[in-house]
Write a structure and sequence with these properties.
Layout: H1 3-28, H2 33-42, H3 49-61, E1 65-72, E2 75-83, H4 85-108
Antiparallel strand pairs: 1-2
Helix pairs in contact: 1-4
C-alpha cells in the first residue's frame, strides 16, 4: 500500500469519528469552535474551521446541540455549543458502538 493510500485511509477514519469526538468534547462542557479545534489538535486530530462548522451545524439541525452567543473579552461574541438531551442519548449510543467496534477489531486482529 502506498503512503498516499494510507494517508487517505487515515483521513477517512478520522472523518468518520469526528462527529463522535465533537459530541464527546461538548458533553464535558459548553465550547466554542476554536476551543473544540484546540482539543482536537491536542489529541492530534487536526481539523480546520471549514471542516468543523458544517459538522456543528448538522448536529444542531439534528437536535444534538444547541448554542448561545456570549461576549468575549478578546474580540467579537462567541457562539458556545451545548449538548442537548437528545445529543447525550446519541453520545451514549456512539460510546457503545465505539466499544463494540474496538472489540470487533481486536477479535479480527486476534488480540483477544
Amino acid at each position: 500500500m502506498t503512503e498516499l493510500n494510507i494517508d487517505n485511509i487515515k483521513a477517512q477514519m478520522r472523518k468518520g469519528i469526528l462527529e463522535y469526538c465533537i459530541l464527546s468534547i461538548i458533553s464535558r462542557q459548553d465550547a466554542y469552535a476554536s476551543s473544540i479545534i484546540a482539543e482536537l489538535k491536542k489529541a492530534e486530530m487536526i481539523v480546520v474551521e471549514g471542516t468543523l462548522y458544517p459538522l456543528l451545524t448538522r448536529q444542531k439541525n439534528q437536535g444534538l446541540l444547541t448554542y448561545r452567543w456570549e461576549e468575549s473579552p478578546q474580540g467579537p461574541p462567541r457562539k458556545y455549543y451545548s449538548i442537548t438531551p437528545k445529543g447525550r442519548e446519541c453520545l451514549a449510543q456512539l460510546d457503545l458502538a465505539w466499544s463494540e467496534l474496538v472489540s470487533q477489531i481486536a477479535v479480527i486482529r486476534n488480540e483477544q
